[in-house]
Amino acid sequence: MIDELSGVRVFVSDVRVGDDRDAVQLIARAHYEHQAEWVAFTPEQLGDDFFELRTGRAGAIAQKFVDYRMGLAVVGDIAGRTAASTSLADWVRESNRGRSLWFVPDLDALAARLHGGQ
Fold it and tell me: Pairing mode, if any, of strands 101-104 and 71-75?
């Protein structure tokens, strides 16, 4: 599904991403089929391994989005995960300071970030 948030085309994914190859396929679909600048996932679509930083899965997937200049938004509540992992909490905080990977509670918060709000 495509959503126009603050003038930015966001592809709200309806599929699970298993690895960085899946991410590349989804990036291509979002860009070529929908002219999207961002892709939004729920935490569930990324799976538990994404949030276990030691697996390297999050870094590999996030790097593909950076390489292809496509924004990645994780949309949903991850408070329990960040409370349980200092390293994840630090990564989320640092990512939210950047321009390519954001963790937001809902699409309204993503729209506000895309509009320039924090």
Answer: parallel
Strands 2-5 and 8-12: antiparallel
CB distance 39 to 65 below 8 Å? yes
What would you measure as the largest C-alpha separation in the chain, in angstroms?
38
- Using alpha carbons only, how large is the chain's radius of gyration in Å? 13
Q: pLDDT tens digits, residue range 10-64?
A: 999 999 998 999 999 999 999 999 999 999 999 999 999 999 999 999 999 999 9
CA dist 102 and 113 (Å) reads 9
Look at the pTM and tell me if it is higher than 0.90. yes
Cα–Cα separations (whole angstroms), residue 74 to 10, 39, 46, 58, 95: 12, 9, 9, 11, 11
